[in-house]
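dumping this here before i forget
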Amino acid sequence: MILNAVIEKDEFGYFAYVPELKGCVSQGETYEEAITNIKEAIQLYLESLNEKETESLKNKIFSIVPIEITEIENARVS
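structure:
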């Protein structure tokens, strides 16, 4: 099974989450540590699912696609 992990860097290190798995998050001081930790979090998350939920994930198609925005319109903040 292939899942997508999003890794974000902030002032505290790296934050990782898996959009397909609600609440499956982790972090690390380095990028590599965040990857290792999110893999462990994914494994634990998958172990908590029943067979029907696991099968549902196997059949789900999920993509993360970069979208380029070349011009930002003036936006009002209310």
